[in-house]
Automatic annotation (TrEMBL):
SUPFAM superfamilies: EAL domain-like, Nucleotide cyclase
Organism this protein belongs to: Neorhizobium galegae bv. officinalis
NCBIfam families the UniProt entry points to: GGDEF
Protein name: C-di-GMP phosphodiesterase A-related protein
Taxonomic placement: Bacteria, Pseudomonadati, Pseudomonadota, Alphaproteobacteria, Hyphomicrobiales
Cross-referenced CDD domains: EAL (cd01948), GGDEF (cd01949)
Listed InterPro entries: Biofilm_reg_signaling, CHASE4, EAL_dom, EAL_sf, GGDEF_dom, Nucleotide_cyclase, Rev_trsase/Diguanyl_cyclase
Gene3D superfamilies: 3.30.70.270, EAL domain
Keyword terms, alphabetized: Membrane, Transmembrane, Transmembrane helix
Length: 732
């Protein structure tokens, strides 16, 4: 074969080189274009990730500021919508006000400024950082404080009388809330001009900003300085829209970080393009996961109760709805257990909110251990907890868990050097296969819980449809009772009290009776508990005392006994109200005995002792009622100095058994005699009982044998005719 001429070989070689060069050039162009495309894509993705992260940080910062304000609002609501506050503040108890509001501003993370003002904006108490202040609100706060004040004071019916916002102060920026001091139920028996308002302030200083940054993972969160040019910013504005302060932070630039990680790989070798995309994807995923984790942490914080660490009310409702939906798919039943602590309020009253908070944390820890990881546990109120669980055999699961919970509360709680004994009532509602919504479950379990409290503490009650009718009937009873008290349609009757030796009438006990319009008589065992639980007992009790004192003027030689409920006795102004009744009716206090049961003396001995001292200064006598039906402690018989003991009817009725019953009665009377306390026996129904009681040493008797509760006209006939009560004849 002949060889091609050299020029053709050179031409071919040059052609091949040219082709290779073209291919290399084309490849290079492709590589360059791909590189440019990749780098451009990377740059855009980095910029997008940076902007996304900045936007998430902005939303998180706004949410943190909103949570800061809402935490103050929640604290304000706890301290303003508080039965004790409604009693002591309006009674003018300065020691209580300073102890529960002023002193709490010292080293407190909840609030550092506390004021109490009247309707005319007059300052009644002002504390900051645990000490009284010298500044005036007009000089310390900006004008938006008065807008909040007007909003809270002008709240109409059905509107919560509270207002919260950020306010500029002499010390910087603070979340400030204004709320009407009222009962927990929202009721307040005070005229507009006599109302009191609670103002809390919680300053947002550099330390708290730093803590918010750490909590919500916002790097370099700080107040913006005069020369601060950070592009990321969230403004804090007052209720008027005025910017009070700016918050800025350092951008984390996650996109740039990812870009720097992958760029060397692109430059090193295009063969690593695939790996480059993989790393880019991994880096982006990590960034997104981190962002999602930050968002999840913020959402978790918003759904958690900061005191107990459990879910809060909002978090619980969200989790409960999800559980109900899941149970419909899994064909399981859902149960909701609603718990309310018995005696928690007394612990708070006796030892303060600090001890109460520790008790809440202890209860939460114990319940968390009992409930386990499969159920939902939340703190949904001040002393209320909720547990939701799903199972196929829900009845057995609820019964077992309820027994464990009641057993847990059967043991005392040790809080430092103090021991607190509390209980609980459990209301249970069940959603078969998730057919009942979460909201309805809460309503039903709450109703069952209150039914458990009314029918006996320390027990579990399941929701029944009849409870709706019972609740409606109770609500109607409450409305009608309120109207009857306002219209003075409650009657006062009198049961004779006789001398144990002669059986002659020497006094009467005043009792309330209610004939409900359109329905007939209502048992005191029904309407008295309603009055106590709704706060109507104060009006009812004072009305009975007033009417009885007026009637007592007809019987100059008789004594009067009137029952006082624990609800009245807790009122710090109760002695003032009693003195007012005596002054208006002209009654002689020495002829009047106020009868009280032992429960309140055991729960609050110090406060009870102070209240008794105020009453005794008026000249009235104090009797311990129903002795023998409860604890019957000799210790408090001695320390409280009662003027009379009333033996419970259960001891009287037991006399028919003889033997130990008589010995117990004799020992009880001997105990009273040794303390020089006169004894009245109630519930006397037979002559044999009366004779035995007289022989035992009782000096006064009361019961159906001598007369049922009767009208003042019937008592007057007995008194004027100097006859034995009950139509009896002869001498004892």
């Amino acid at each position: 074969m002949r060889l091609l001429p050299s020029r053709f070989r050179r031409s071919a070689t040059l052609g091949r080189r040219s082709a290779v060069t073209s291919m290399l050039l084309a490849f290079a162009v492709v590589v360059v274009l791909v590189t440019i495309f990749i780098l451009t894509a990377l740059d855009r993705m980095a910029d997008y990730a940076n902007r996304l992260d900045d936007e998430r940080s902005r939303e998180t910062t706004s949410g943190a500021i909103q949570t800061f304000q809402e935490q103050l609002h929640a604290t304000l609501n706890d301290y303003a919508a508080w039965d004790d506050a409604a009693q002591f503040v309006y009674a003018g108890d300065n020691a209580w006000i300073v102890g529960n509001y002023g002193d709490m501003t010292a080293n407190s993370d909840l609030f550092d400024v506390a004021l109490i003002m009247d309707t005319n904006r007059n300052v009644l108490m002002a504390y900051q950082d645990g000490a009284p202040v010298t500044w005036s609100p007009q000089n310390f706060f900006d004008s938006s404080i008065w807008t909040l004040f007007d909003k809270a004071s002008s709240a109409g019916a059905g509107t919560v009388p509270e207002a919260v916002g950020f306010v500029e102060t002499k010390n910087g920026v603070a979340a400030v809330g204004v709320a009407l001091i009222r009962q927990k139920s929202g009721e307040l028996a005070q005229p507009v001009e006599g109302r009191r308002f609670l103002i809390f302030g919680r300053h947002l200083d550099e330390k708290k900003i730093l803590k918010l940054g750490e909590t919500y993972v916002i790097g370099g969160l700080r107040f913006a300085g005069a020369g601060d040019t950070a592009p990321n910013m969230v403004e804090i504005r007052n209720i008027h829209g005025k910017a009070l302060q700016r918050l800025v932070w350092n951008s984390r630039m996650p996109g740039n970080a990812a870009y720097l990680q992958v760029r060397p790989l692109v430059y090193c070798a295009l063969a690593m393009v695939g790996l480059f995309f993989l790393l880019l994807f991994a880096s982006g995923s990590n960034t997104l996961n981190r962002l999602k984790a930050d968002e999840a942490a913020a959402r978790h914080l918003a759904m958690s109760d900061r005191l107990s660490g459990l879910l809060n009310r909002a978090g619980f409702f969200a989790a409960l709805d999800a559980l109900v939906l899941q149970s419909r798919r899994s064909n399981e039943d859902v149960a909701l257990l609603y718990l309310d602590l018995d005696g928690f309020k007394e612990v708070n009253d006796a030892y303060g909110h600090g001890t109460g908070d520790k008790l809440i944390r202890g209860v939460a820890a114990g319940l968390k251990t009992l409930v386990g990881e499969t159920a939902i546990l939340a703190r949904v109120g001040g002393d209320e907890f909720a547990i939701a669980l799903a199972a196929t055999d829900i009845g057995r699961a609820v019964e077992t868990l309820s027994d464990h919970i009641l057993g847990f509360f059967g043991e005392p709680f040790v809080i430092g050097e103090r021991v607190a004994t509390i209980g609980t009532c459990i209301g249970v509602a069940i959603s078969p296969r998730g057919k009942v919504s979460g909201e309805e479950l809460v309503r039903r379990s709450d109703m069952a819980m209150y039914h458990a409290k009314e029918t006996g503490r320390g027990r579990t009650e399941y929701y029944r449809p009849e409870m709706d009718a019972e609740r409606e009937e109770r609500n109607m009873l409450e409305i009608d009772l309120r109207i009857a008290i306002e219209r003075r349609e409650v009657d006062v009757v009198y049961q004779p009290v006789v001398d144990a030796r002669t059986w002659r009438i020497i006094g009467v006990e005043a009792l309330a009776r209610w004939h409900r319009t359109g329905y007939g008589p209502v048992s005191p065992e029904v309407f008295i508990p309603i009055a106590e639980s709704t706060g109507l007992i104060d009006q009812l009790g004072l009305f009975v005392l007033h009417r009885a004192c007026e009637t007592l003027a007809l019987w100059p030689e008789l004594k009067l006994a009137v029952n006082i409920s624990p609800g009245q006795f807790r009122d710090p102004a109760f002695a003032v109200h009693v003195a007012s009744v005596f002054r208006k009716t002209g009654a002689d206090p020495s002829r009047i005995t106020l009868e009280m049961t032992e429960g309140y003396f055991i729960q609050n001995p110090e406060r009870a002792r102070a209240a008794l001292a105020k009453l005794k200064q008026l000249g009235v006598k104090i009797a311990l009622d129903d002795f023998g039906a409860g604890f019957s402690s000799v210790g408090y018989l001695r320390q409280f100095g009662f003027d009379r003991m009333k033996i419970d009817k259960s001891l009287v009725h037991a006399l028919e058994e003889g033997g130990r019953a008589i010995d117990l009665l004799q020992a009880t009377v001997a105990l009273a005699r040794s303390l020089e306390i006169p004894v009245t026996a109630e519930g006397v129904e037979t002559e044999a009982q009366a004779i035995q009681l007289r022989l035992t040493g009782c000096d006064e008797l009361q019961g159906f044998m001598f007369g049922k509760p009767m009208s003042s006209q019937e008592i007057d006939i007995i008194y004027r005719g100097n006859r034995l009560p009950g139509g009896m004849s002869g001498t004892a």
